[in-house]
């Protein structure tokens, strides 16, 4: 439910920050889940590869894409496995709400940068490691609001923008933008902001 709620905001952010038409562009969606973002990108005429370790997610994504006559190359495999077997380069790589779950962030970012074409764009979203994120993204989201299952997040794996930024620059990716994503409980909606204390996006090139 929460992903459906933030999806329009995420897809608009991606389209706005790619800075050109995604039509016919080669896009990799890492941790694609049920294909919510992959399908919208494919409907914009992009050539999309979606990977996810969860077989059930990929099965649902394939079924939904078939039902809607959308062509997407879905693969049920880890990013490490995909990286070892894949020979393609991508115009755009997106990795949304995934980095806070991986074992080796530095290696993951290095491999993503290797898969980008020269001039390619990388769009990440993750959770900052702050007291505010502990309270709202961990405690409230899991134990009070029931947005996500208990135990989904480990606070020590949350990532500060500076940490990711250094890793990106070390791997030849220039940071173009860092934006926060906030929830307004009164309007019951998400919006892009300058506040990166909890959820945030990073755009690199």
In short:
It is built from seven helices and eight strands. By secondary structure, the chain is an alpha/beta fold.
Task: Summarize the main sheet.
Answer: 8 strands, mixed
Distance between the termini: 31 Å
Mean pLDDT over the residues: 91
Low-confidence regions: none
Radius of gyration: 16 Å
Report the principal-axis shape. Answer: globular
Number of strands: 8
Beta-strand portion reads 25-35%
Q: What is the tally of helical segments?
A: 7
Q: How are helices and strands ordered from N to C?
A: HEHEHEHEHEHHEEE
Helix- and strand-based class? alpha/beta
**Strand line-up of the largest beta sheet:** 3-2-1-4-5-8-6-7
Bin the helical content: 25-40%
Describe this structure in words.
By secondary structure, this protein is of the alpha/beta class. The chain has helices spanning 2-18, 36-43, 55-67, 79-85, 105-115, 131-144, 161-170; strands spanning 26-30, 47-52, 73-76, 90-96, 116-127, 175-184, 189-193, 199-204. It contains 7 helices and 8 strands; from the N terminus they run αβαβαβαβαβααβββ. Strands 3-2-1-4-5-8-6-7 form an 8-stranded mixed β-sheet. Helix 1 (2-18) crosses helix 2. The mean pLDDT is 91.
Task: Give the topology.
Blueprint: H1 2-18, E1 26-30, H2 36-43, E2 47-52, H3 55-67, E3 73-76, H4 79-85, E4 90-96, H5 105-115, E5 116-127, H6 131-144, H7 161-170, E6 175-184, E7 189-193, E8 199-204
Parallel strand pairs: 1-2, 1-4, 2-3, 4-5
Antiparallel strand pairs: 5-8, 6-7, 6-8
Helix pairs in contact: 1-2
